[in-house]
Design brief:
The chain is of the alpha+beta class. It is 57% helix and 19% strand. The chain has 14 helices and eleven strands. Strands 3, 4, 5, 6, 7, 8 and 9 form a seven-stranded mixed beta sheet that branches. The chain has a four-stranded antiparallel beta sheet with strand order 2-10-1-11. Helix 2 crosses helix 12 and helix 10 runs parallel beside helix 13. The longest helix is centred in the C-terminal third of the chain and has 44 residues. The radius of gyration is 34 Å and the shape is elongated. The two termini are 31 Å apart.
């Protein structure tokens, strides 16, 4: 019952000085809201990055020569030949779902009065099964296109609208220059990529298109990169190591001459950076909690001075030292707790509004909220302890004489 009475007295003291109490809690409110908002924004960003990588394929990787070992100078036999890729696919036929030379080329093109730039990527048959694309019209590059080196092209919807002013230009021709040779590519498909976080960040002014990789291998079948999609059930790091070890062995190279980079490792690196940034900024924001705690201590010291006679009267009526200590400690804790609740609501609101503006699903981690509120309670106890002890140790006679 005594604790309930102390809570009632503390709430009465808070209500009687509303503005002073609010200003006292302001540091706690700002600190809690900042920590929760920053942590939630960081968690939301990680979630968005994870969804992007899952959409594009967590089982994606590419293999290339170790440029540090080759010192940016690589001999022709060190490049990947078609037989190397076929040997790799045959050796790991249960693990590799897709493998092809990674070749790209840029070309200007013109249709009527419409000029534009194309980014041509050479792909193998079935590439659309592993990527985040939707075929709207026609079809994707198939095995016959690759083996016959047929002049075929699949373009994005925006390119179709730009060059032909219609969404379905299947059968139309796009003229491009590949390795100095003019080619007329027949459009066999139109695709669309769902809107995404990474897609909105693209600064390229070229339209992305796909052609048979054999069309880009004009007179030279060698390539620097191998693009691979693996079995999703297998560990990509384990498979990447096995793939590169096998290639170094059949190419008779030193260990680690060929290396790999996987989508999973890229996502891990991005999440590490985001986590470090959130932690650093959150730690800076948490400093305001300490400032808020100092504010609580300051106001509680003022409160002890103002209520010196009250303390003397309570002690003369039989209140024990620990009763006075508990009264002022509870008051400090209530100030901190109310500030923590308001800060939590404000922090969640800021995170939700920010992520809604960025069109990202907000992620609110309960552990962060509990940690922030718990820390604010500790701040209230720590900075409220000294004023409470000062009040509890007042001499009742001297307190009654205080004017």
């Amino acid at each position: 019952m005594l604790i309930i009475e102390n809570i009632r007295l503390a709430l009465t003291a808070v209500k009687s000085n509303k503005m002073r109490s609010f200003l006292t809690m302001l540091g706690i409110i700002i600190g809690i809201s900042s920590v929760i908002a920053i942590a939630s924004i960081g968690a939301s960003a990680k979630g968005a990055v994870g969804k992007e990588f899952e959409a594009y394929g967590m089982n994606y990787m590419y293999i290339y020569p170790n440029w540090e070992m080759t010192q940016d100078s690589i001999e022709y036999p060190d490049l990947f030949m078609p037989e190397d890729i076929e040997a790799l696919k045959y050796r790991f036929q249960e693990d590799i779902l897709y493998a092809a030379p990674y070749i790209t080329y840029n070309s200007d093109t013109r249709v009527g009065r419409n000029d534009g730039k194309l980014s041509l990527q050479g792909v193998n048959a079935g590439y659309n099964q592993f990527t985040n694309m939707i075929l709207l019209h026609g079809r994707m590059i198939n095995k016959s296109d690759v083996q016959g080196k047929k002049d075929r092209i699949v373009i994005e919807k925006e390119a179709a609208l730009h060059f032909f002013n219609k969404e379905n230009p299947v059968g139309e021709i796009l003229s491009v220059v590949i390795n100095g040779e003019m080619k007329d590519l027949t459009i066999i498909g139109v695709y669309e990529v769902p809107s995404s976080l990474f897609g909105g960040m693209s600064m390229s002014d070229s339209y992305s298109t796909y052609v048979p990789y054999s069309v880009l291998q004009t007179g030279d079948p060698a390539t620097y990169y191998i693009e691979i999609y693996t079995d999703k059930k297998k560990n990509p790091d384990t498979m990447g190591t096995e793939f590169t070890n096998y290639l170094t062995r059949i190419k008779d190279k030193d260990p680690a001459f060929y290396i790999y980079d996987s989508a999973e490792s890229q996502m891990t690196q991005i999440n590490t950076v985001l986590g470090a940034l959130s932690l650093a900024i959150g730690a800076i924001a948490a400093i305001s909690l300490v400032v808020g705690g100092i504010g609580i201590m300051n106001i509680m010291l003022v409160s002890v001075t103002e209520r010196t006679r009250e303390i003397g009267i309570r002690k003369s009526l039989g209140a024990r030292t620990k009763d006075i200590l508990m009264q002022f400690l509870i008051e400090a804790m209530i100030l901190s707790a109310i500030g923590g609740i308001i800060g939590t609501i404000l922090g969640v609101g800021i995170a939700a509004a920010g992520m809604s503006f960025a069109n990202i699903d907000v992620v609110i981690e309960l552990s962060i909220i509990l940690l922030a509120v718990g820390f604010s309670a500790i701040v209230g106890i720590f900075f409220g302890l000294y004023p409470a002890r000062k009040a509890a140790n007042l001499d009742p006679i001297e307190a009654l004489r205080y004017e």
